[in-house]
Amino acid sequence: MSDEYEDMDGDEDISALEDNSDSLGEETDVIVVAVDDPLAPDTPVYRLRLSYSNETFLAAYKGEELGAGSWVMVPTRYGRDLAQIIGPIQHRNSPGLGEISRIERPASKDDLEKSQYNRKQEKDAFRICKEKIETHRLEMKLVSVHYLLEEPKILFFFTAENRVDFRELVKDLVSIFKTRIELRQIGVRDESRVVGGLGVCGRAYCCHAVSDKLKPVSIKMAKDQNLSLNSMKISGPCGRLLCCLAYEHNFYNEQRRLIPPEGCKISYDDAIWKVVEVNVVVGTVKLSAEDSRQVTLPAARFEKIEGKWQVKAG
Fold first, then answer.
1. Which of 170, 183, 191, 297 has its CA 20 to 30 A from that of 153?
2. If you ran DSSP here, which 8-state letter would residue 203 be given?
3. Region (Disordered) spans which residues (predicted)?
4. CATH fold of 112-185, please?
5. Could you state, in order of their start, the residue ranges of all structural domains in the chain?
């Protein structure tokens, strides 16, 4: 009945919007289970999701075809447990897919019934753990609780601004539940990924519904997209910069290579003009002349020749 601890998101600068932690943000799968037997080229590979942490990973299965939404038994980094099929992988040889686990078998009726029973037990465990946290006056927030299906272990996910000495808490939980207790500290971005919700756009959180891979997001990304640096407008409910800033950043970088930057001086219409505004989305460039004239041209009319920006003939 030992306890375990793992920081899934690393130390964070709470005072900053930027979150450069990449322990769960790399473009590789977060669940790695070593296997000895080589994978046959024709073995179907599926993407799976853990419902309690919203993590996804790849696993192969040699048996009958598994449909999206079905449940399977599979080894995970937490232990043997149920995972849900998202769908088959079409291009299994694509780079960056990471390790591929092995599905043991489809979930049985007993597995699903036991899982439903565990969901009810988790609600009680959450309440009890929260009460014990308050009793010990620990500065931590309980996020979720999960009973593993095939192992005598309960997972408790929590957030905290600093490291927490929860040894007395673990002792209490072990004495109550008579099983192995595992506490895992996660970051505020991970909390949003696990719990889910609606963003300022009115859609589900990107980290919960689009991708569980948390990419680092920087202030520079917001600047490159000419966004207001008002923290209320560019940060999500987690208090960190919006994930979508990273999704759109590559587009802005690619388009800006084709457009003269702000401040650039260009000879046009027998005058010297200065680029005062670039609208990457609309595809326009606003120029201002020394005599206060202004003109807006399509971005497609600009080209760079021998290191100098020029305007093509209209």
1. 191
2. S
3. 1-22
4. GMP Synthetase; Chain A, domain 3 (3.30.300)
5. 45-107, 112-185, 265-311
